[in-house]
Design a protein that fits this description.
The protein starts with 9 loop residues before the first strand and ends in a 17-residue tail after the last helix. It has a three-stranded antiparallel β-sheet with strand order 1-7-8. By secondary structure, the chain is of the alpha+beta class.
C-alpha cells in the first residue's frame, strides 16, 4: 500500500467475472470523481474484425490522470481535504489490510449517489415517461437496486405532477415554480420548444394555459393551448414537445405570467429578469 488509512475509506470491487449490475458501482464512483469510465481497445491480428474489445480492465479518466483497475481489484478512495487519494489493490492485499469493506451509513450513501450518477448519465438529459415505460429497466445494469430506484423515482415524480418529460432541475427553482403556479387563475403547463429540422427539444420552455386568460393593463387575451409569448396575430401555434416537469425559462412567457398574477394582486416568487441593454 502507498497510503496508510487514517479514516474509513470508500472501496469498490471490480468483479472478476463480467457483471453489469455490479460494474455500475465502480463506473459511477469514477464518474463522481470526475474520472470518465471507459474500456481500452486493443488491436490484434488474431481477431476476425482486426481488433478486440477486452473487458479485463477498466480505465477511469484520461491522460495523465488515468487510473487502470484490472478485474478482481479494488478501487480505494482515501478521503482528504480537496482531491481524494486513489489506490488500486488486488483482492488479497485489500483483505489483508481492511478485512472487509466499510458498510457504514455514510459509505452506503456515497455508493448509492455514485450509482445514481451512473443511472442519470445513461438516461440522458431528457427522459420521457413513455421511454421509461416501454423499456424494461430490470435486466443488465438496471438490475442494480440503485439504478432501479432512480428510474422508479422519476416515474413517480412524473405521474404525480401529470408530466411526460423529466429534466434535471434545481429543487429550489422547482419549489418556487410550484408557488408561482398556485397564484395563477387557470392551470398552466410547461412544454419545451420543439425544433423542426433536427427534431430535438430546444432550450426554451414555454408556459401553456389550459384555459383562456388575460394579462396586463391592456387586457391581452392568451388563448388556451397556446404559449403566453405567442403574438395574437400568429396564425399557427409553436411546435412544442411534451409536458415537462421543469419550470419555464422563456423570458416573454415569464413576463406575461407576472402580469397575469398582478391582475389578481399577487407577485411571483421568482420574477422574470429584465433584459440587459445591448452593448457595443
Amino acid at each position: 500500500m502507498r497510503y496508510r488509512p487514517r479514516e474509513p475509506v470508500l472501496a469498490v470491487h471490480y468483479p472478476v467475472e463480467p457483471d453489469p449490475a455490479r460494474e455500475v458501482e465502480i463506473r459511477g464512483l469514477g464518474r463522481t470523481l470526475d474520472l470518465e469510465p471507459r474500456v481500452p481497445f486493443e488491436y490484434s491480428r488474431y481477431s476476425d474484425r482486426g481488433r478486440t474489445l477486452p473487458n479485463s480492465a477498466i480505465l477511469l479518466g484520461d491522460g495523465d490522470d488515468t487510473v487502470r483497475v484490472p478485474r478482481g481489484h479494488w478501487l480505494v478512495v482515501h478521503p482528504r481535504p480537496g482531491r481524494p487519494l486513489l489506490e488500486v489493490l488486488p483482492d488479497d492485499d485489500f483483505r489483508a489490510v481492511f478485512g472487509e469493506p466499510d458498510r457504514s451509513a455514510a459509505t452506503r450513501r456515497a455508493l448509492f449517489d455514485a450509482v445514481a450518477a451512473e443511472a442519470r448519465f445513461h438516461l440522458g438529459h431528457y427522459v420521457e415517461l413513455r421511454y421509461l415505460d416501454a423499456n424494461d429497466h430490470t435486466t443488465g445494469m438496471w438490475a442494480h437496486p440503485g439504478m432501479r430506484a432512480v428510474v422508479d423515482g422519476i416515474r413517480t415524480q412524473l405521474r404525480e405532477h401529470d408530466a411526460e418529460l423529466w429534466e434535471p432541475v434545481d429543487p429550489d427553482k422547482l419549489d418556487r415554480w410550484r408557488r408561482d403556479r398556485a397564484l395563477l387563475p387557470v392551470p398552466v403547463r410547461v412544454r419545451p420548444h420543439f425544433t423542426r429540422p433536427g427534431g430535438h427539444y430546444g432550450t426554451a420552455r414555454h408556459v401553456v394555459p389550459d384555459a383562456d386568460v388575460r394579462s396586463g393593463a391592456r387586457n391581452r387575451l392568451h388563448p388556451a393551448g397556446r404559449t403566453l409569448c405567442e403574438s395574437t396575430t400568429r396564425p399557427a401555434p409553436l411546435l412544442l414537445g411534451p409536458v415537462t416537469l421543469a419550470p419555464p425559462d422563456c423570458t416573454r412567457c415569464l413576463t406575461h405570467l407576472a402580469r397575469i398574477a398582478e391582475r389578481r394582486g399577487h407577485r411571483l416568487a421568482d420574477p422574470p429578469r429584465r433584459r440587459r441593454p445591448p452593448t457595443k
